[in-house]
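Service request form, structural biology core

Requester: graduate student, group of Dr. S.
Request type: structure prediction, single chain
Budget code: on file
Notes: please return the result as structure tokens.

Sequence provided:
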Amino acid sequence: MTSVELLIEIIKEHAPEDIWQGSPLLGYKKLGNTNRGQIGEEFIRRYLAGVGIKATGGGRTARTDMMIANRRFEVKTASLGAKGTFQFNHVRHDRNYEYLLCLGICPSEIVFNIWRKGEVAEERAGHLVRMAEGQSTTWKITKKLEEMMPIDILPKTLRSKLKI
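Core staff response, request fulfilled:
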């Protein structure tokens, strides 16, 4: 056995299961974080347009990710990790939004959840962990797959929450 073959064997023994192998959404997983966020926002805009819900605005420099039915939304997108969780990064309290919409991309499905900004601040959306020690500007929320909902009920959920 060569040294390279030995290292390959050791890597295989220590590598977590690749839940994304053969996934139709593997291309998403390969993108950088900024691109993932942009794709998540564009997906939400187009998906809602397809069911007659107006979603506008956003972009990398906007103070609010998007407007849905004239309400300000912060949108966070994350991919499913090997342990069955999503890590939604850079959740902020200092941004002017009314709702946090978390979009989860799995190997073969798309899920979401929504909370009012106050629920996020009260940690009813999940435990907030600082992105960096000693700062209190950006936070992350980890959610289990079971805590998310299938994307096909997003329109119904928005219509109910926003009374549209």
